[in-house]
Amino acid sequence: MYLVIVESPAKARTIGKYLGRQFKVKASIGHLVDLPKSQLGVDLENRFEPKYITIRGKGKILKELKEASKKATQIFLATDPDREGEAISWHLSNSLGIKENVPCRVEFHEITKTAIKNAFSRPRLLDINRIEAQQARRILDRMVGYMISPLLWEKIRKGLSAGRVQSVAARLICDREKEIESFIPEEYWTIEGNFKEPEEGNVFAARFYGKAGKRINLAREKEVNTVLQRLGGRNYEILKVQFQERRRNPAHPFTTSTLQQEASRKLGFTTKKTMIIAQQLYEGIEVGQKGEPVGLITYMRTDATFISPLAQEEVRKYISMVFGDEYLPEKPRIFTARKGAQEAHEAIRPTSISRGPDEIKGFLSRDQYKLYKLIWDRFLASQMEAALIEQVKVDIGAGEFIFKASGSSIKFPGFMVIYIEGEDEEKEKENQLPSLKEGQKLELVSLNPNQHFTQPPPRFTEAALVKTMENRGIGRPSTYSPTIETILSRGYVIKQDKVLKPTELGFIVVDLMKNFFPEIIDVDFTAQLEDQLDKVESGETSRLKVLSEFFVSFKDRLSVAREEMEKIELQDEETEEVCLLCGRRLVKKHGRFGKFLACPGFPECRYTMQVKINTGVKCPLCEGDIIERRSKKGKKFYGCSNYPGCKFVSWDKPLDKKCPECGYFLVEKSFRDIGTGLRCGNKECEYQEKKPAKSESKK
């Protein structure tokens, strides 16, 4: 019997299907060994040696794996193909007594029969350099977090944290907010002319440009009025018409960051939601008449744009068959990855292009379908022919004054028939220009002056922050989503109308970090440190050297901060809610499970209540508002705002949607086989929205 160890039960089920009965596949459920939570866990005096322990609650799993390993003739470690996965395999090999010279590591980037068979036919030794890089990152993060955070608890309040990546991300958001606050808008004007070409009577718009070929910037209304007066009574004609054909190439297939950005733009997904659903698609979904789990996409934590030759061959055949050879480039597209990308990995793509989104839609939840379709469309488009765009530029003369207009038309859609990449900012729409000729006379319909003001830089959305972090070299694919979740949960940042806005607490923490730990919160320093970690992985430098060089200045900064950092009193935000015991107005507090309301008379008065988050759904018992609440152990549930008068409660989130069968409200429900779905909140009604039963699928 061969023992195979992976991280998750879902992955174990999918892999087990391909390996056969002689293989026993078990899950470690993530890390089994880590640094202790109760202490630093790093010996600063002895080469920064980590003190690993078995994670609390994981002893039973480790015991089961040890018992299974004793019965196995060979052990394979098939954890994820990245630094974290390599570290999990290394800890497992140490715990199970696997010798260093035994090739036990199995690595694959997609969970398909071919990939699994190939990987198990050539197991390799553990990659010590990759393990060293992961340990260096873990120890760096532990030193920053465990040695700075207690200072923040002491000087500001408990529950705060600092981090090598999170602090820089918070700084980016705070610095952007300061730019917005200090921004002084400047006035400017434009003049838009509407013109009619006499032959067909088509009307189009053009914008005032300037005089005698030189641009005139209109800053004040007085300047605009002067130009309008001088334009009075002029004759208008086409001075020049320029045609230019431009090729527009498709975007590369998804990396982690571009997937998170595009899912945010097009689907409204948070980075966390995107990664949860992508993990489900990677580890396996039950599709087809047999209902067997199938890995639908390749590994979703990657910064590579590489595509395997087999996948390219498959997608090129699909394009030729479905769209025709005119949509197929002469050669397969090869995309250049950014500096530092792991080219041994692949981009995120469907494991089979023949498995179209609509063909398997009935087996996926709504969100799984949306994300899979996005990945499938992007990959297909990335290997298609370029689009041909014809651009037209027109100069219109009015004496010595000039108006300009531009437009474009698609001569050949190419990849655009299937997918167009989203934009963070809306672009000004181009005109649809009529057929125009040089020397053609035009009739002026109207001149419209418009006042404008320059705009400050926009606040970060999650997508824009991820893009900036990647471009600046902050963090890696696996850290973008957890970083955003951390700064939100700590209260440094709030999400408001889909943008990230710093709080007073966020500004205070960032300013303290700037004053006492300038290197930690410096964007360029953090990026250079990421490069050093990459060099540890490639064997160009050592873990000890990176940690030693970092700790020299960090130790001195820490010593100064302990002596000089002053205590800061945060003023609690007062609310309209009134204490039921003493009548004072309650204030917002931050606790272990987020915000809550408390009486400012503490400790004399100990009254507290939860922050009311309205779901927008009415209580079925008394027509009160259903609000989000938390139990004493911090578990989220939903109850009536009229409690204790009304006892309605629900563990599932109520939605403002009615059940088509009984009219009761629907709730979000997690199903083991598909993830999140919907069901009726009425326990006596069996209505639910999930994938069809296997018998229905066969039909």
Please outline the helices and strands.
Elements: E1 2-6, H1 9-19, E2 23-27, E3 33-34, E4 42-43, E5 49-50, E6 53-54, H2 59-71, E7 74-77, H3 83-96, H4 113-121, H5 128-155, H6 166-182, E8 187-197, E9 202-211, E10 214-215, H7 221-231, E11 236-248, H8 256-267, H9 271-283, E12 285-287, E13 292-294, H10 309-322, H11 366-382, E14 387-398, E15 401-412, E16 441-453, H12 462-472, H13 480-489, E17 493-496, E18 499-502, H14 504-516, H15 523-538, H16 543-564, E19 574-578, E20 585-591, E21 594-598, E22 608-610, E23 613-618, E24 625-630, E25 636-640, E26 649-650, E27 654-658, E28 665-671, E29 675-680, E30 688-689, H17 694-698
Parallel strand pairs: 1-2, 1-7
Antiparallel strand pairs: 3-6, 4-5, 8-9, 8-16, 9-10, 9-15, 11-14, 11-16, 12-13, 14-15, 17-18, 19-20, 20-21, 21-22, 23-24, 24-25, 25-26, 27-28, 28-29, 29-30
Helix pairs in contact: 3-5, 5-15, 5-16, 6-13, 6-14, 8-11, 8-12, 9-11
Structure summarized in a few sentences:
Helices cover about 35% and strands about 25% of the residues. The chain has about 700 residues and is of the alpha+beta class.
What does the model show?
This protein folds into five domains: 2-126, Rossmann fold (3-Layer(aba) Sandwich), CATH 3.40.50; 135-182 and 459-564, Topoisomerase I, domain 2 (Orthogonal Bundle), CATH 1.10.460.10; 187-249 and 387-453, Topoisomerase I, domain 3 (Distorted Sandwich); 256-382, Orthogonal Bundle (Topoisomerase I, domain 4); 653-699, no CATH class. It is built from 17 helices and 30 strands. With 699 residues, it is of the alpha+beta class. Mean pLDDT is 90; it is low at 691-699. It has a six-stranded antiparallel β-barrel with strand order 8-9-15-14-11-16. A four-stranded antiparallel β-sheet has the order 19-20-21-22, with no helix packed on it. Strands 23-24-25-26 form a four-stranded antiparallel β-sheet, with no helix packed on it. It is 34% helix and 24% strand. Helix 5 (128-155) runs antiparallel to helix 15 (523-538), helix 6 (166-182) packs across helix 14 and helix 9 packs across helix 11 (366-382).
